[in-house]
TrEMBL record:
<dbReference type="GO" id="GO:0016746">
    <property type="term" value="F:acyltransferase activity"/>
</dbReference>
<dbReference type="InterPro" id="IPR001078">
    <property type="entry name" value="2-oxoacid_DH_actylTfrase"/>
</dbReference>
<dbReference type="GO" id="GO:0005739">
    <property type="term" value="C:mitochondrion"/>
</dbReference>
<dbReference type="GO" id="GO:0045254">
    <property type="term" value="C:pyruvate dehydrogenase complex"/>
</dbReference>
<dbReference type="InterPro" id="IPR045257">
    <property type="entry name" value="E2/Pdx1"/>
</dbReference>
<dbReference type="InterPro" id="IPR023213">
    <property type="entry name" value="CAT-like_dom_sf"/>
</dbReference>
<protein>
    <recommendedName>
        <fullName>2-oxoacid dehydrogenase acyltransferase catalytic domain-containing protein</fullName>
    </recommendedName>
</protein>
<dbReference type="Pfam" id="PF00198">
    <property type="entry name" value="2-oxoacid_dh"/>
</dbReference>
<feature type="domain" description="2-oxoacid dehydrogenase acyltransferase catalytic">
    <location>
        <begin position="57"/>
        <end position="256"/>
    </location>
</feature>
<dbReference type="GO" id="GO:0006086">
    <property type="term" value="P:pyruvate decarboxylation to acetyl-CoA"/>
</dbReference>
Length: 257
């Protein structure tokens, strides 16, 4: 053992190896080594804020929900008949017309509300959901829908959808809604309870059409309609009355003209 120690000392002396200096601590932590993984794992991510309208709606409006199934066989047959004649009539237009008439039966749902007061609106400004490629939920407003015929509602619907697609929707066509309508049938969604938009009291949502065969002979088309409403202002009785009126109108399309 002693011989090995002498050999080591002789080696150090012969080769001029000096004693190493120990690093002193300064109280500052050494920089941390960053570890980079694959390109996929090292991608940067950005925080995406919640949409202000959705955030305000869900946090400040107590929501209630009621749903009903609607037989729209006659409406579908009429739409197909018009299409064969060269006239296209969108289901959204028919739903808006039915909502406008149902709001005449239950005008309490057509109002502007804040945290302290609720004011009935003398006009029906329908905020219509328009599917878009962006992340935001886009609503275009049909102002004075209570004065519009079915044809005028269809024309304004087309105009708003074109403006949304072109990114040219004006402020006037984007704000001031008193009631909202969401048609999710084109998105292949059967059932959805949408949020009540800020300063409004209710939103009606319809899902996609379902085709049923009855007794192997007759067929029927049905959809599900869901009313989301401000449960602090609108009672379930009023919401149910509106939904029943809406269903009755859609199942008797002659009343929509």
């Amino acid at each position: 053992m002693l011989e090995r120690c002498r050999d080591v000392l002789d080696y150090i002396t012969t080769h001029g190896i000096k004693k190493g200096v120990m690093a002193t601590t300064t109280g500052v932590e050494p920089p941390k080594t960053s570890v980079t993984g694959s390109k996929r794992r090292s991608r940067s991510f950005a925080d995406v804020p919640l949409l202000s309208a959705d955030l305000v709606s869900k946090t400040s409006i107590p929501h209630g929900y009621l749903s009903t199934h609607v037989d729209v066989t006659e409406i579908v047959n009429e739409m197909e008949k018009l299409l064969a004649e060269g006239t296209e009539l969108c289901l959204t237009t028919i739903v808006i017309r039915a909502c406008v008439l149902a709001l005449k039966v239950v005008p309490e749902l057509n109002a502007i509300s804040d945290r302290s007061t609720t004011s009935s609106s003398p006009v029906v400004n329908v905020a219509m959901y328009v599917p878009s490629q962006g992340r935001n939920s886009v609503f275009g407003v049909l102002r004075g829908a209570e004065k519009m015929t079915m044809k005028e509602i269809e024309m304004n619907r087309q105009r708003i959808e074109k403006n949304v697609a072109a990114g040219t929707l004006s402020v006037e066509d984007a704000e001031g809604g008193t009631f909202s309508v969401c048609n999710l049938s084109d998105l292949n969604i059967s059932d959805s309870a949408e949020l009540v938009r800020p300063h409004q009291l209710a939103t009606l949502t319809i899902g996609r059409l379902h085709h049923f065969l009855s007794d192997g002979q007759s067929s029927a088309d049905r959809l599900k309609a869901t009313l989301s409403f401000n449960n602090a202002v609108i009672s379930e009785d009023l919401a149910s009355k509106f939904l029943e009126s809406f269903r009755f109108l859609l199942e008797h399309p002659l009343l929509l003209s």
